[in-house]
Write a structure and sequence with these properties.
The complex is a heterodimer. By secondary structure, chain A is mainly alpha-helical. Chain A has one domain: Up-down Bundle (Butyryl-CoA Dehydrogenase, subunit A, domain 3), CATH 1.20.140.160. In chain A, 71% of the residues lie in helices and 0% in strands. Chain A is globular and about 55 Å long. Chain B is an alpha+beta fold. Chain B has two domains: 67 residues; 115 residues. An eight-stranded antiparallel β-sheet of chain B has the order 3-2-1-8-7-6-5-4. The N and C termini of chain B lie far apart (112 Å). The chains are: A mainly alpha, B alpha+beta.
Chain lengths: 168, 203
């Protein structure tokens, strides 16, 4: 990859490596928040673009992938709130469910969650990240992450007719 | 199936169906970020140019305005034409005058104005003032303008009468005595010095 002279070669390689490692995962997490693939890709794209603009600084962080996830989740949550407001204004129907064979009920149930709860669920269940890391990504405390997950599980259990058992 | 298991498996299946073209996005991110950096640098250059232009064009004017403030009353107040005095009018009372300001007035006491004052009214409109030793305020740069029977001055405008309009007095001269009567002056200290008694001509 050639960043056309505004980063050194080593930085280019490091950024490209991180991009290839993490981009798809960030898109998937963003999708679980937005439920729209195109928007999820746009959000991930924007987050990685910001990462590159700030690469000199963020590239030195211990976990730059946490930074880019945090930006993507923030952007996704903001976009979701905007979409929800627009849906209320225009009384639009739910976004289309993907045509692939998936647990459609689960996907629908996820829509009932707040953006931060969706993000916590995606990071915990999909990305299998520990509480401390989720807290770092979401910019909150571990206790707050636990509250997000507890409320999310409770709501999902109600909607899916499952038994709610809290996870320690 | 437990909720946790359903979530793990269900979300995994949903995510598996999402497989973006990573290389295409990488190229796009690099292009976008580069454009953004170029724009940012251009904005910074423009801002720097604007600062330089401002400092070259506006700063001298600002300095002029600032220096003129030391010769004029605060903005917003009527300004006498002290920069271009009517020397003919000024000539009418040009000369050196003295008087003693009594200590009775509150404004006089609080501003340490009591004592012997000497003013030299020069034809070009400048006013040299000698105050009693007790007064330590600003006197330099005082100017005046004389009309047919009016007298305006910037005396004390940088000190005890700051932020007040330029005053107007009526002047009368009888022999060696020059007397000022306030028409419009909101500064008690100036009224006490200028108009609480007649000025007597003589060095």
């Amino acid at each position: 990859m050639n960043l056309e002279g505004w980063h050194d070669d080593q930085a280019d390689v490091a950024y490209a490596w991180l991009f290839r490692e993490e981009f798809a995962a960030v898109v998937r997490t963003a999708f679980l928040i937005l439920h729209n693939r195109q928007e999820a890709e746009d959000v991930a794209q924007e987050a990685f673009m910001q990462l590159l603009v700030h690469w000199r600084k963020v590239g030195r962080y211990e976990r730059p992938e946490a930074w880019v996830r945090r930006v993507a989740i923030r952007l996704a949550a903001r976009r979701l709130r905007r979409e929800q407001l627009r849906a209320i204004l225009h009384r639009s129907v739910d976004p289309p469910v993907p045509t692939m064979p998936v647990d459609v009920d689960l996907l629908r149930a996820l829509r009932a969650l707040a953006p931060q709860q969706r993000a916590a669920v995606a990071l915990f269940y999909l990305e299998d990240r520990p509480m401390a890391e989720i807290a770092q990504i979401l910019g909150c405390s571990k206790a707050t992450v636990k509250v997000h997950l507890f409320k999310a599980r409770k709501r999902l259990a109600e909607l899916l007719g499952e038994e709610h058992v809290d996870v320690p | 199936m437990s909720l946790d298991r359903r979530l793990r498996e269900g979300l995994g299946r949903i995510a598996a169906g999402i497989d973006p073209d990573v290389d295409w996005h990488l190229r796009r991110a690099v292009r976008g970020a580069r454009r953004r950096v170029v724009l940012r640098r251009a904005s910074a250059t423009l801002a720097a140019a604007a600062v330089i232009i401002t400092s070259l064009v506006i700063a001298p004017r600002a300095l002029d305005a600032l220096s003129s403030l030391t010769r004029r009353p605060p903005a917003g107040h009527p300004v006498p034409a002290v920069a271009e005095p009517t020397t003919v009018g000024n000539q009418a009372i040009a000369g050196t005058y003295r008087r003693s300001v009594p200590a009775g007035d509150l404004d006089v006491r609080s501003n340490h104005l009591a004592g012997r004052w000497i003013i030299e009214l020069r034809p070009e409109g400048t006013m040299a003032v000698t105050a009693p030793a007790s007064f330590t305020g600003v006197l330099s740069g005082s100017q005046f303008q004389v009309g047919a029977d009016t007298f305006r001055t910037t005396l004390f405008i940088q000190d005890v009468c700051s932020n007040l309009p330029v005053p107007t007095y009526r002047w009368t001269r009888v022999g060696e005595r020059l007397k000022f009567t306030p028409i419009d002056d909101r500064c008690g200290a100036r009224v006490a010095v200028l108009a609480s008694g007649p000025w007597v001509s003589g060095g």
